[in-house]
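Summary for the steering committee. The consortium agreed at its last meeting that each partner would contribute one worked example illustrating the joint modelling workflow. Our contribution is presented below. We chose a case with several input lines so that the handling of multiple components could be demonstrated. No manual editing was applied between input and output; the record is shown as generated.
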Amino acid sequence: MGLVWEGIKQACWLLFTGDAEVLGITLFSLQVSGTATALSLVVGIPLGILLAMKRFPGRSFAVSLINTGMGLPPVVVGLFVTIFLWRSGPLGFMELLYTPTAMIIAQVVIAFPIVAGLTMAAFQSLNPNLRLQLLGIGASTPQLLWLLCKEARLPLLAAIMAGFGGVISEVGASMMVGGNIRGQTRVLTTATVLETGKGNFEIAIALGLILLLLTFAVNLLLTHIQQREQIRWPKPS
Amino acid sequence: MAEALLSLHDIRVQYDEPTVLEVDYLAVYPGEVLAVIGPNGAGKSTLLRLMGLLLQPTQGKIYFHGREVIPTDGFAIRRRMASVFQEPLLLNASVYDNAALGLRLRGLDGRTIEQRIRPWLKRLAIEHLARRQARTLSSGEAQRTSLVRALALDPELLLLDEPFSPLDPPTREGLLLDLERILRETGITTVFVTHDRDEAFMLGDRVAVLIAGKIHHVGAAAEVFSRPINEAVAHFVGVDTKLSGVVEAANAGWAQVRLNGGRVGVAGDFQAGEQVLLCLRPEDITLSAPGEDLKSSARNRLIAKLVKIIPWGAHYRAELACGDSRLVALITRPSFLELKLHEGDDAVASFKATAVHVIRRK
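What follows is the complete predicted structure of the assembly.
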C-alpha cells in the first residue's frame, strides 16, 4: 500500500509542479491518440454508415473484417506496421519507422475498425424507415446523414470514446513502431512500461494515474456532449 | 382530362428474382385524391415510394408535369412533394421543431416557419402540444404532428402511406374526418395508400386496386366498389356474394342466368351460353321469411338456408347457402329482429336485377 500511496503523492507532485517531461509526454500522448482518433473517425464513420445502409456484393465479408478488426491485438498491429515501414519493407522508403507518424498510423489501424463497427451498429439500430421519412420531407443527402447522425448520437459518441480509449491505452504498437524514444516518441503508456521495468514504481504509478485522469477527462467531455438533449438543426440546402 | 401531375409508365420493381410491382400506367391528376387499396404485401408502399421518388424502378419511366424524371432532378422534384408514413417517426425534439423540420431543411427563416406552422398546428388540433417533446406523444398526436410537417410544406403532391393503420378506432375516425375536410378544402393532390376500403371510399375521388403488384382496376370510387372489374377486385372491395352461372337466355338489355341454386335476372347485353360471375354487395340483398309478402320491387328471389348470423355493428350479417352458392346480406338490427329468423331456417334473399354486377368469365 505504501508503494501505491507514494505513487499517488508523486503523481500529484508531478501534476502540480508541472514537470516539463511529464507534461511533454502527456501532451504528446494526447496529440498522437487525438490525431489517430480523428483520422479513424474520418475513415470509420463513413465506412460504418456505408456498411449499415448499402447492400453490395462482398458486404458480409467486409462486415466480418471490421468485426474482426475491432479485436485486433495492438502487438499484431505493431508487428505488421513495423514490417511495412521497415527499411526493406514496402513503405520503407518513406522512413517513417520510429516517428510519431508511424505511431499515428498504427493507432489508426487499431481505432478505425472500432469506430466503423460501432457506427455500423449505431446506424443499423435506427428505424430503416426514418431515412425514407426524412427524404420524403425534402432532406438532401448531407442533411439526411447529419440528421441520422444526430439521431444515432448516443452510440456514435460511444464509438468515439471506444476508439480513443483503445488507442490512448495501447502500448504494444506504440512501443514497436515508435521505439519509445525520449522526447520524440515516448507516450504515457510506453513511459509507464519503461519506468516499471526500471523499478521506478512511484513514477510509473504517477504516469498511470495521469493516463487514467486524461482518459476520464476526455470521456467526461464526450459524455457531456452525448447526454445533451438539444437538437441542432442541419444547414439548409 | 387535365395533364397528369405525376404518371408511371411501364414500371417494374424487382428485388432479386420476384417482381414486386408491375404497373403499365398510373396517373394522378391535379386536385384529386387517388386512393390505392390492396391487401397486405400487394406492393402499395413500394408504389408510393416510387411516386415519392424514394425508390428507383428496375425499369420504366416516371413523369412529373409531363416531363420525364431523371435521377439528377429527383431531389428538386422530391422537394415539391411530401410524404407521411404509417409510422410517424419523429426526431427527439419538440412537436414544433418536428413540424418545422421540412421548412428548416429548405432554409426558411424562423418567422416564415412560424407563420406556416401555426395555422396547421391549429387546424390539426395540436397547437397546445407545440412545446411538448415528441417522444411523450400518443400515436394519434404523433401522426397529427407528422401530417403538420408534411402539410406545412404546401406540397404539390401529398403521399400518405396508411397513416391511420396504427391508430385506435376513435383516434382514427377523428383524424380521418379532419384529413377529409383538409383535403376537400385545400384541394391538395394526394395519393393515399390503404388496405381499408372505408378509408379509400371516404377519401378517394378515384380508387386504384393493387393486388399482387398489379393494378387491376382504376376508376371513380363508386364505380370500383359497385362494379369491380374482376373477381379479385370484387373480393377485395367487399363484394361478398359471388355467384357462378351461365346465361340461359338474353334479350334486349336483359338476361336470365342459371345458378346452381336457382335463376336470376340481370341487366345488360349478354349471349346465351356465356359463363358469368354475379356480384352483389351485402347491402343490396334483402331478407324475408318464406311466404311473407315482400314490399319490394326486387324481381330476383332465391330460397336459401340461413347458415350463420353475426352481429355486425349496427347491422346483422347473414350468411346464406343456396345450392352450392353462398350469399351474404347485411340487415339492420330492427329489420332482422322483426324477421325472427334463426340459423338453419329457410329465408328468401331478394335483390334487384340492376343491383347485380356481372363479370364475364373467359
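The radius of gyration of chain A is 20 Å. The interface with chain B takes residues 127, 129-130, 132-133, 135-140, 143, 147, 150-151, 229, 231, 233-237 of chain A (CB under 8 Å).
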